[in-house]
Amino acid sequence: MIKGIGIDITEIKRIQEMLQKHPQFVNKILTPAEQKQYEGLNGSRALEYLAGRWSLKESFSKAYGTGIGSEVGFQDIEVVDNQLGAPIVTKAPFAGRVHASVSHTAVNVITEILLEDKND
Fold first, then answer.
1. Torsion of the alpha carbons at 77, 34, 89 and 11, rounded to the nearest 10
2. 79, 87 in Cβ contact below 8 A?
3. Strand, coil or helix: 111
4. Which of 53, 82, 98, 115 lies at a CB distance of 3.0 to 4.6 Å from 3, suitable for a disulfide?
5. How far apart are alpha carbons 106 and 119 in whole angstroms?
6. Is 58 in contact with 8 (CB distance < 8 Å)?
7. pLDDT for 32
8. 78 is in an annotated binding site
9. Which candidate, 41, 37, 46, 40, places its Cα nearest to that of 19?
10. pLDDT of residue 120
11. Does 76 count as an annotated binding residue?
12. Per-residue pLDDT at 108
């Protein structure tokens, strides 16, 4: 049974501007495992990854019904890429299954999170 669905679209340029204004932005958004993947990327690919993680976490918070804030923060959700490059949610405040999808253009990143009851 589906428990929640969340979708987000983020302008990559907006994330780039945040990163330029606030160098600690990466530490606020990415968990240590995500940072490790991020550090292995360069140029536009690194920016796409960072924007994707921001957007995935926004999508999760929408599906969960809380938004990002006091109940769920960026460090409470972790999404790392598997060997094939698919985003896998490895940490979240949800007991069921979490499905993630991310796609991007040169301008935007769009993500979707689906929360599924663990008994299904």
1. 80
2. yes
3. strand
4. 115
5. 39
6. yes
7. 98
8. no
9. 46
10. 61
11. no
12. 98
pTM, entire model: 0.94
CA–CA dist 53, 37 (Å, integer) = 11
Give the pLDDT of residue 37: 97
pLDDT along the chain (120 residues), means of 10: 97 96 95 97 95 98 94 96 95 96 96 90
Q: CA–CA separation, 19 vs 27, rounded Å?
A: 10
In this prediction, residue 15 carries a pLDDT of: 96
**Can 13 be counted among the known catalytic residues?**
no
Query: Which two structure tokens, joined as six digits, stand for 104?
Result: 């991007």
Note if 22 is an active site residue.
no
CB 12 within 8 A of CB 47: yes
For every residue of 54-106, which 3-state class applies, written as one string? HHHHHHHHHHHCCCCCCCCCHHHCEEEECCCCCEEEEECCCCCEEEEEEEECC
Which of 21, 22, 57, 62 is the catalytic position? 62
